[in-house]
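Model: Ready when you are.
Researcher: Fold this.
Model:
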Amino acid sequence: MDQGSIARILKQVSGGEDEIQQLQKALLDYLDENTETDASLVFSRKFYIAQWFRDTTMETEKAIKSQKDEDSSEGTHHAKDVETTGQIMHRAESRKKFLRSIIRTVPSQFGAFKMNSDTVDYEDACLIVRYLASMRPFAQSFDIYLTQ
């Protein structure tokens, strides 16, 4: 991954969200800007929103499950796990809120939230997609699958 390009995109994208949300917003803006030239981008945009919402829900469910598992085993690191679970839950709720606001926004109104079209071009959009895909659980555990 080209971390320099990711950092450049993050600098150009305004917003106080976390890094993932900023990249998601940049990608959604790019897809929304180019829907007139390629109709399949409308589907891609909806697919990404649905997939990110599902991932956030799964992350929340895993955090709750791990907290219940820790409660039953009563480990010594219980306080740290609860804090981490709370942070995961807070981050998940903020991401869900962000995605819900994007879903409720119709494309004609989305123009008010758009950044400059210079910010993300096709190559940057491809880089963002690869970066966000690398953050998914399957991509992170790919080495484990290969060794098995």
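Researcher: Now this one.
Model:
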Amino acid sequence: GVKDDSFHVLDLAEYTKNRPWWRKVFAPSSGSSAEKYNVATQLLIGGVTGWCTGFIFQKVGKLAATAVGGGFFLLQIANHTGYIKVDWKLVERDVNKAKQQLKFHSSGNKMSPEVKSKVDEVIIFLKKNVILTGGFAGGFLLGMAS
């Protein structure tokens, strides 16, 4: 068999002309969700997505804590039984060096322009979508608790 390497190209401009719902949802001038949905819908969307995120975050957090704690426990057992030897002076020196670097970087309190612009975008989004964000925060906390 001869392999056919032809591709179908989707022109989004033409696609959206025939679908008004696409323009309503994804148009750049569509505004914030506060303008598109009523308060109950925003709370429901925010709450459901927040709960799902919180639930997953809780499960992954427990798994990560178990892995880190278990790994540390196994290292301690291996150290005490003589399988490995830990140079604690080297560990202490590296930790102190890391602390000094953290103090040096945090003393400047200057963000790069890229980070500052992203933070500004997030703040603008949060201000425009207060109800959605509140629903998400509440759902996230409920997800973490369940």
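Researcher: Key takeaway?
Model: The two ends are 55 Å apart (CA to CA).
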